[in-house]
Model the fold of this input.
Amino acid sequence: MPWLELQLTVDATTQPQAEAALEDLGALSVTLMDADADTPDEAAIFEPGVGETPLWQTLTLLALFDADADRPGLLHVLHDALPNLAPDRIAFREVADQDWERAWMDLFQPMRFGRRLWIYPWNIDPPADDDGTALVRLDPGLAFGTGTHPTTALCLEWLDSLDLAGKCVIDYGCGSGVLAIAALKLGAAAALGVDNDPQALTASHDNATRNGVGDRLSLYLPNALPRATRGDTFVANILSGPLNNLAPRFAALCTPGAPFALSGILAGQEPELLERYAACGFTNLLATAREDWVRISGNAPAPG
Done:
């Protein structure tokens, strides 16, 4: 059956109140997107931490209702909850019923990163011959991180450029586990995935098991990491604010001189992070841009 989609555009300060109002109205789902993005890929969803404001200044909330929902009634309640909301910030459209997971799977095609690394969706069989490629197969329905976003792509290409044989890799903010799994496929002996979302840890475990590397991936909530944990290689694809705050923590999680990479950084945010990480002893810092996003790479502090 068709559905009714209510589109609401608000600023970041109004977002929590608007989202709560939509949930009170019985929305079946509420999706947050960047209202200023030109394409769906640029509007990729990033979940803020507890108490944090969203990444974007202006957001579009897409709320899904039954097709026969009372539109005037929805508008009345919304105007009561958000009296300053202009009429042109609200729109309705009918959405045809479809297999949403299948529609997404049809859009997700095999992708190559660097020289050796390929990401394949589960609905497409890779070539039978083994030509030395590192192949990761993912269920794009689990958590975020399939390689389609520039931040993930930048990290995957960086991992492909390294000699990971025998190394232990830490993936901080692991999401779907794609970076940790890719590292294992590229020759790492072990990987640790860290995320503050238990659902992400479940997704990482499932994806690692399906890729035959589940026995070499350990998964932790941040506060559960063993005290002596150290990574020979370190990657974190999260957001600029947490990257800034966690710089000393990341230094402590790396073996001296370990290669590291950070992403999830919007263009223009990198100067502050470069200064911050240099002050914490990280060396050989390099910023690499793609579209509106930046990766910072270099080496962890040396001893002494």
Q: What stands out?
A: DSSP finds nine helices and 14 strands in the chain. Residues 38-53, 141-146 have pLDDT under 50 and may be disordered. The first strand starts at residue 3 and ends at 11. The domain at 3-97 is CATH 3.30.70.120 (Alpha-Beta Plaits).
